[in-house]
Amino acid sequence: MKNSRKAFTTLAAACVFLGVALMPGCVSTTMQQVRDADTGIESNEAIAVLGRKFLSRDETESGFLDCVAEKSSSGANSLKVIPHEEFVDHLFPWFEPRTAPLDIVDMKNLVKNETIAQRLDDKDVRYIVWIEGTTERAEQGGTLNCAVATGGVPACFGFLSWEAESNYEAIVWDIRRSVTAGKVSSEARGMSFVPAIIIPIPFIARTQAHACTHMSKQLKQFIAGPAEVE
Amino acid sequence: MDLPMTANVRASIGLALLIVFAMTLGGCVSGAKVTSDIKVPKPLVDSVPISVGLHITKELGEAFHEEKIVQHGKFTIELGESQKHLFNQVFGALFSKVVPVQSLAEPPPDIAGIIVPRIIDADISIPHQTPGDFYEVWIQYSIRIVGSDGEEITDWIVPAYGRANRHNFSNPLDRPKQALEKARNNAIRDAATQITFEFARQPEIRDWLSKI
């Protein structure tokens, strides 16, 4: 009887903690799309999702690139996606921070190199999607103090809050036609907070995950073209 | 009312605190040691149809950089393991044949010259030293070329740089090691990129190649 009460107490405590820990904070998302050319994709054609790397500026988190690659290649209207690392290794050293083409004119010149064109053909690359942007924390406030109280029980008191903003843009190049097809952007804002009365309870606004989900959905629709959207 | 605190409840509270502590641990760094090697892809370039020798010194093969950063511990990055692979990949792409040379005093026949790479300096930086979120690695190479007659053709300095965003690594305890490793790998890739693109553009090297 005593053991079952112990087990119940443990389970209840764990459930309460996990339940609240997974509670999302509030997130609002804004999406935008600019189309410069018609798009469409055959089932054998692929897109390469690349992060624009700079030697002296902030760069997109690899987790966001992985997320967009994964979500764009699954679900409805899924695309054949080549992730960043695989693509830059396959075309080394032409897509390194010092050497990557900065615009579609640079790309057009690059494709004139037969070796590079052949490598792109090997992977059936039709579109290159350049992603830029980051997630930033802003307006952090409050304090949270933790200590070990009498009896060896750790306890925290206080309140922490911060606002996060995820701001990403994807520029789509059509390699076959050597044109910029357009761009899609996804901006997510959210407030996270951690109130603590003995146990800290985090309410995390997953802005980056929201931005990724919306950008992937938009990208799939954008590349498939308006007629193909379910 | 006095509520009894069971060991299980204490454990749950401890777990919760541990998770919150881990979430805020990003600021704590206490050294790191990067020892793994890196595989650089062979550059996609047209090769020059000549044979060259490549002399990898013992000093280069064992190179490492060690640095103590006040309040953050000792950071060590191994550099030597990857160098033989790096230069074989790069010069193997630039020239039709690369012959390993054990000693400069005994050059093999039928080669246009011998390439002798060295690391002459290295440096690291962690996010706490700069306003940014990046672990950074600088490696300065010297690419010395000796002609088939034994005369030095050039000693070309290549400054390579790589960095890694700390936010790309979720485990706060393993973050310094993983991020420094990525930054080092990016610096080595940068060296490969610069040598591939700039090698034949160096005036002395261009002259040397034009006379072969």
Descriptive terms for the model:
heterodimer, A: 230 residues, alpha/beta, Rossmann fold, six-stranded mixed beta sheet, 6 helices, B: 212 residues, Double Stranded RNA Binding Domain, five-stranded mixed beta sheet, three-stranded mixed beta sheet, 8 strands, 31% helix, elongated
State the total count of DSSP E strands of chain B: 8
Reading the helices and strands of chain B in chain order gives HEEHEEHEEEEHH
Note poorly predicted spans of chain B: 1-5, 22-28
- Helical segment count of chain B: 5
Helix/strand/pairing category of chain B? alpha/beta
Distance between the termini of chain A: 56 Å
Name the average pLDDT of chain B: 87
CATH architectural label of the domain at 32-134 and 167-184 and 205-228 in chain A:
3-Layer(aba) Sandwich
> Strand count, sense and closure of the main sheet of chain A?
6 strands, mixed
Assign the CATH class of chain B. Answer: Alpha Beta
Which CATH first-tier class of the domain at 32-134 and 167-184 and 205-228 in chain A would you pick? Alpha Beta
The 3D shape of chain B can be described as elongated
**Element string of chain A (H = helix, E = strand):** HEEHEHHHEEEH
